[in-house]
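Quick start: what a row looks like.
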Amino acid sequence: LGTCLEARIVYGGGCGGMKIELVGSGDYAESLPPQLSVRLIMDDNDNCEALVKENVYFDISDLQYEGAEELLLNIEGWESTVLVRF
């Protein structure tokens, strides 16, 4: 239980900083549990080409659907949904 989502990402870079955000659409699908489409947005000003693998963490407390203890996240580009328990 908790409000932190951990994701393992792989990208080209390695010379500078990279910023990544998890952004929700704001429109919940009416299902049990509710579903929300989200996507990862990367701001990468790094022109290096090393293969970087790292864990990133997102506070998802603001994505909780009112009155629900679970939420299905449909993350753009991912093959499966992620079940979150608050």
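That is the whole record. The two ends are 6 Å apart (CA to CA). Residues 30 and 42 are 29 Å apart (CA to CA).
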